[in-house]
Design goal:
Elements lengths: L2 E2 L3 E2 L13 H9 L17 H4 L4
Length: 56
């Protein structure tokens, strides 16, 4: 597991089941969502920031 003293266990599991799933296509699609090395998450826009902002 990927244990961090600051954040705890940072492992997530995603399980997809169903007949005829294309495993390679699903892996490629999910991998395309990952940030690359040196690509800071702070550079991305947060589409939920406006509705989740706790400021009055």
């Amino acid at each position: 597991m990927d244990w961090s003293p600051d954040h705890g266990d940072r492992v997530q599991h995603l399980v997809l089941t169903g007949p005829g799933l294309d495993r390679d296509r699903i892996h490629a699609l999910l991998d395309s969502c990952l940030l690359g090395p040196g690509e800071p998450a702070t550079a991305l826009d947060d589409p939920f920031a406006e509705i989740l902002d706790p400021a009055p």
